[in-house]
């Protein structure tokens, strides 16, 4: 007997066909039944798209797979020389190990460690070591016009405060210059402010000069609208060293000489014998990955990428990290000739990934012992980048967002009536504002969930859209 079963996602087809925002755009979608191990809906799922921050799905999965959930970054404090009569005859060395979470409070702890040695003067200076990563601080494909933005900081093995300073603008009286200052206070960054207070209009201009650490603040600020704006610094390693020196001086420990970089610590220790005084430990990798995915931290993703290169290939470069990602994709069953990867965060427009590649990663993680940990790192409704999205779907969706100019993506997991699905939706080359694509993504997810629930009694059938399925009985 021949049974004809009609099972289609016509609602999704209708959304894609009838949304004016998508008429001249490119998109690829794939929905995958993780238990049934079958694609149940797809459109252009093997085509290549710019994934934006959906790249982090690959980067964080690779880091969890190769480094392990309990991996920690270390920052080392050394002294070089001898201590006599409250004076260090030599230098203090700060060695970075890639910790993306090194905070201002951590620097205060290092200052207190030096104070505990009863050192009140350092005849040398602060020497920084950041050669765990190669000198390239920006991946290929990042655009010059946002390189002072907080979401695009330079990458360093010695990072502090997410490699940004906060420019704090406080309105004064009408027509007066606003009170503008930098936090944390540091001489490493020069501030030029010409911004005035206005009772009505606001035209705020703020930027860091290219290749400098000079921040310009100009225009007008509304009298009722104080602002805090984070700006990325140039050369985070030197920023960390300078801030450390300034905090030592402020605490009564005089550091006589300047901050210098040790280009090769391996060569340096062949000639000198520094002594490790203490070390700082980062949070566990699983916590760092949670912040990377939930808050879409580009700095964290790029540090994970370079760390993968350093740990797997003994070279903390972008290229070595990308090779680690491709190695992981190969393990996931992906043909790496059909991907183009240029960074770990997805900020590069040169990246090209298909929905089916992201499904392969999500499927691999689902079937591994890492799934519970990995699932927990993805945003859920009401939190992180899904804070204002998918109301009422808290127990249904965990997904990574992604957005750069003319790109909006969403990939992750769905749990519907006890069954698990992976999905990936990549939208490229639309000309409307991104905020108009987000409701389309949500409508597609809700339509998919509705269709699955309506047909959850259908078993042992092959789903495609639209499709006619013939089975022998």
Automatic annotation (TrEMBL):
One of its GO terms (biological process) is proteolysis. This is D-alanyl-D-alanine carboxypeptidase/D-alanyl-D-alanine-endopeptidase. The gene is dacB. Keywords: Carboxypeptidase, Hydrolase, Protease. The keyword Membrane does not apply. Transmembrane segments: none annotated. Pfam families: Peptidase_S13. Its EC number is 3.4.16.4. One of its GO terms (molecular function) is serine-type D-Ala-D-Ala carboxypeptidase activity. The keyword Protease applies. Belongs to the peptidase S13 family.
